[in-house]
Design goal:
About 50% of the residues lie in helices and about 20% in strands. By secondary structure, it is of the alpha/beta class. Helix 4 links the parallel strand 5 and strand 6. Helix 2 packs parallel to helix 3.
């Protein structure tokens, strides 16, 4: 009788564990679908890595078309605050494939990432254009895939622009904020970054520069060419070093 009870108890436990696993997988899939985020916690090191994606256009105060792929900064900022507050999250991996978007929203995301106490790594996939550049360099270490692109150009304002001195001063102020942030978080000199922004021979209808893969590394904007295994491996190393330093 006792053996039967033990067997039944083990069967119930196994059933409960399987049900819990299915529920966790369901929640994980829903989280990926809704906000493009997930916690990577099935690694050999038992680190909890929060995966954050910056996809499509960075949406600011105005709602974009429902057909457009967007990253909403009002979703990202609270999540970053929760990551910082969490005692369980060990590091943050940020995947970027963005065309840019709202300057103020993009800078806010970049500043939040840069101020995290957790180890952070970014990986530029298809591209990280315009305001995506500050976000890409805001992490402790950055990667770009060989075919990844970064478009560097001056600030543009949408909507009605009044041609007065105050408008031009405002443009300059925003540009200086972006340039200052980028140069503070990577190795590209300010003079070189401004040269790349004002290049006239590459984009047919615009000024600016397209950097592909290794070119972004050679310019000192991105740390290294690599893929997802490199980025995750680097993050695990950073987490281990931080743990060792705090012991």
């Amino acid at each position: 009788m006792g053996n039967n009870k033990n067997t039944k108890s083990r069967d119930d436990q196994n059933k409960d564990e399987k049900e819990k696993k299915r529920e966790n997988e369901k929640q994980r899939d829903e989280r990926i679908e809704k906000v493009g985020q997930v916690t990577l916690d099935e690694n050999a090191q038992h680190h909890k890595i929060h995966l954050l994606t910056i996809i499509g256009e960075v949406e600011g105060h105005d709602n974009l078309s429902s057909n457009a792929k967007t990253t909403k900064y009002e979703h990202i900022l609270p999540q970053l605050a929760a990551i910082e507050d969490s005692g369980e999250v060990d590091g943050v991996l940020i995947l970027l494939n963005t065309m840019g978007g709202d300057v103020e929203a993009g800078l806010a995301i970049a500043e939040m990432i840069a101020s995290l106490s957790k180890p952070t790594v970014s990986l530029v996939l298809g591209g990280s254009h315009s305001i995506g550049v500050p976000i890409a360099v805001s992490t402790d270490y950055s990667y770009i895939v060989p075919t990844g692109t970064m478009v560097i150009h001056p600030v543009r304002l949408s909507g009605m622009v009044i041609g007065v001195q105050q408008t031009f001063d405002y443009f300059k102020q925003i540009q200086n904020r972006i340039t200052g942030f980028v140069c503070e978080h990577c190795k590209v000199p300010k003079t070189r970054l401004e040269e790349l922004m004002m290049e006239t021979g590459m984009l047919t209808k615009d000024v600016g520069t397209v950097l592909v893969g290794r070119e972004a590394v050679e310019e000192g904007i991105i740390c290294e060419v690599g893929g997802i295994s490199d980025a995750i491996g680097k993050l695990h190393d950073m987490v281990e070093k931080k743990r060792a330093a705090t012991k």
